[in-house]
Amino acid sequence: MKFTFQNPVQIIFGAGTLDRLGEAVRAHGTKALVVTGGGSVKRNGTFDRAVASLNAAGVSVVECSGVEPNPRLSTVVRGADLARRKACDVVVALGGGSTMDAAKVMAAVVFFEGDPWEMFPHGQANRRLPDRALPIVTVPTLAATGSEMNAGAVITNEKTTIKSFVTAGCLYPKVAVVDPELTASVPKDQTAYGVCDLITHVTESYFNGVDGTPLQDRIVEGIILTAMEWGPKAVADGNDIEARAQVQWASVVALNGWAQVGTFGPYPVHMIEHTLSAHHDIAHGAGLAIVNPAWMRVAARTRPARFAQFAQRIFGITPKHPDDAEAASEGIDRFEAFLRSIGCPTRLSEVGIGEELLDKFAEDTVLVAHDEEGRLPGRPALTPSEIVEVLRSAL
Amino acid sequence: MKFTFQNPVQIIFGAGTLDRLGEAVRAHGTKALVVTGGGSVKRNGTFDRAVASLNAAGVSVVECSGVEPNPRLSTVVRGADLARRKACDVVVALGGGSTMDAAKVMAAVVFFEGDPWEMFPHGQANRRLPDRALPIVTVPTLAATGSEMNAGAVITNEKTTIKSFVTAGCLYPKVAVVDPELTASVPKDQTAYGVCDLITHVTESYFNGVDGTPLQDRIVEGIILTAMEWGPKAVADGNDIEARAQVQWASVVALNGWAQVGTFGPYPVHMIEHTLSAHHDIAHGAGLAIVNPAWMRVAARTRPARFAQFAQRIFGITPKHPDDAEAASEGIDRFEAFLRSIGCPTRLSEVGIGEELLDKFAEDTVLVAHDEEGRLPGRPALTPSEIVEVLRSAL
Lengths: 395, 395
Fold this sequence. Notes:
Two copies of one chain form a homodimer.
Chain A: E1 3-13, H1 21-26, E2 31-35, H2 40-43, H3 46-56, E3 60-64, H4 73-85, E4 90-95, H5 97-109, E5 136-140, E6 152-157, E7 162-167, E8 175-178, H6 188-208, H7 214-236, H8 241-254, H9 268-279, H10 284-302, H11 304-315, H12 325-341, H13 358-368, H14 384-392
Helix pairs in contact in A: 4-5, 6-7, 6-8, 6-10, 7-8, 9-10, 9-13, 10-11, 10-12, 11-12, 13-14
């Protein structure tokens, strides 16, 4: 185990903490680009409360609304231009993962010279990471992405239909104001997708990371067990703020690095899902619910012991021996059944995707991430035809 | 669940990372006060390697050696005077918890006007927290304290025989260089005490924190299970660097806040132990091994369900009902047996403490920490006579 780790984000967590936004932002700037998504924060009053808190602290507001799901590069460029033109000195993201990701990259594009798509890996040689960004403050309105407390962002280049990611130290928010009350109005389906999203963040490192990280394994298992205990309660009653809080805290910890530190795993399930949601406007969490169990079944063939441990520690299934493929398989079935029980789709047909584009999905996936032999990194690495096999099994 | 959290420490973890000390320190200063303990780092070559790395990076060294176990206020003042006189601009702690704690407070005392004991709570009204310190870089040579990645320190005032603690944002190290190879020469007994120390850090918040922190519970349980799996291996073979690494990572996470965030629990077992080791030069971890099970048996009377959960999740004991006092008791017995199995004392008589000073210990404990009714904070709060009862049961 060898690694370097630092997560400097200050987190202000709890019901009602939105009212502390102004004070949090004021420590970093006086003119905020406030980035929002499709309008729900306006309809439910969150935007007005945020602006009131900012203004009361002496922070003026420049509005940048309309960040779409699977946010586009052109939207990021539009926001950065606005921030530059209006001389904003801080960026506030008020929304879900798409809004936060877009806002984080906007904050960096303000200082980035040349084509911002060069921040993202997509087959080109001349990748350049950003090294400077406006201070960022995140206010998530959805428990899912973990973007509020990490240095990553996923953006889609609509010209090429490629969805790609960037991670850079300057993208760490200064502060994350995490108020579970803001998620009370999230509908059941989106709540369920968020639960799936957060679980998938940690199954990726659990199944694809290096060997010999037992404490990280335990933290991952703790996140999954917490999400499985409280997720169904949040889906059943959106106004159960206790459940909302537990799910949201689990979603923060699922991707702030505490579970992944030193594991260095690639994210094959995310890579495959990104190609689906780049071509179809399906919710990221719904796509993950379809891809993850299908991927697990293929991966379990080469590493049954790992999946048997998952079955044992998450579902209490006792393997007959360490490599018990039957226990491994039962664990995956139980996991898929859990996703279905909270309302996630687990078949491509449920979201209107047929077999027409499977080859294209596989091709796009390895374009964004591939090893020297052209395979998708992971345990095991997958050839394009194996990616097609994963997707075909989920039709 | 409502909290604010930030741990900005950069951690560089892994076998061989001592060689990166110079580079890590150079980012924060050019003249380092290098603080060490009783001399083992000199005998085993660690000190020379550290100085070589510092010098190679262009950092000059001012040596402050001789920090004693249960470090004294006068030692802290001596170090701070030296740092001021020699115009050091960074403090490097190379040693165990005592060395790191002393070094952290030295870094703050450099800028602190007036009596440094006023940083510490000990019954006086005019407590003043430090708000500025020289940059601190920690290099732990023992897996136990967690001091390398947190903002706390414990110091003994030898004039009053009071051991007390301070926590302040400016005491966060800038960098923790955590190299498990440096712990290979730690003898069996100290290794075992370290395992007990790290476990006790998390049992405190687990048993004394607020209700409703299920993910934190899971993280605590993960830390304990990891320590119980790898601790005995590190005790059995000190050169098992894999075991040393797992124990050390568990010790870092046990007190860097990831497990405690939002739990707000007092540390009654530590408070009681501090009075023992302020009067007797016993190892802190050994004292904890004696006090913790005894405290648990008293605390389990009022909250059997909590201890039954501990018994179930750590030892696989199935409670017959949530409040099963028998399961709770069996879990505590198993925990005490684990401590004994790795070589920890669990009775005061084993470390030469009789019943003479029990009243004095109880009195000193509530002097450092007490609620409005004069009881030691915890679940449950304990009167001085109940503290005596805890200690008497461990004679």
